Amino acid sequence: MTIVYLGLGSNLGPKKKNIILAIKKLSRTPGIKVKKISSFYRSRPWGYKQQPDFLNAVVQISTSWPPTELFQMIKNIEKEIGRKKSRPWGPRKIDLDILLYGQKIIRRPNLTVPHRYLLKRLFVLEPLMEIAPRLRHPITKKMIKRYYERFLVRANQEVVLEEKLPWKRLLFPN
């Protein structure tokens, strides 16, 4: 089993419900175990600015799925939840991205791991820092915490803690 970090975001419809639904779908998928879920963070749009704020989170999973099959599976979850093709960085009901896949470095036409914007987005670094502060970047071998601290000094992005969730109760109610 490989430890993988996925970024989740939503800025259309019931944002929190969209993210929770995506996490539930992941948790019900054979070969995937949801290990950790960050708090939810609100952020302003990145790239295309004329759209609603996003709600973001990061999940840690362990999986037996190979990277390309995992990528296709999360794209299917996006479609099931109602994601439609739109402009790059445009509004969406749900967005799932593979941020890190173990310590692998992957360069394929439709899949780049580590995610190419991992170190440029506070809405990814903040929740990732929350659940894995000692995690090392596979290329530079530096801790994510170091990038996060540097980012805070020079960032012009704002991320607001929206909600700390009792995630185990959300996924596994009695």
Radius of gyration, in angstroms, nearest whole number: 15 Å
- Secondary structural class: alpha+beta
| Number of E-state strands | 8
N- and C-termini, Cα separation? 27 Å
Fourth-level CATH superfamily: 7,8-Dihydro-6-hydroxymethylpterin-pyrophosphokinase HPPK
Uncertain spans, ≥5 residues at pLDDT below 50?
none
The CATH topology is Alpha-Beta Plaits
How much beta, percentage-wise? 25-35%
What sequence of helices (H) and strands (E) makes up the elements? EHEEEHEEEHHEH
Q: Judging by the overall fold, what is the CATH architecture?
A: 2-Layer Sandwich
Count of structural domains? 1
Care to describe what's here?
The protein has 174 residues and is an alpha+beta fold. It has helices at residues 15-27, 67-81, 122-131, 144-154, 167-171, and strands at residues 2-10, 32-37, 40-43, 54-63, 95-101, 106-108, 111-113, 159-163. The protein has a single domain (2-171), classed as 7,8-Dihydro-6-hydroxymethylpterin-pyrophosphokinase HPPK (Alpha-Beta Plaits, 2-Layer Sandwich), CATH 3.30.70. The protein has 5 helices and 8 strands, in the order E-H-E-E-E-H-E-E-E-H-H-E-H. The strands form 2 sheets. Strands 1, 2, 3, 4, 5 and 8 form a 6-stranded antiparallel sheet that branches. It has a two-stranded antiparallel sheet with strand order 6-7. The longest helix has 15 residues, at 67-81. The chain is globular. 34% of the residues are buried.
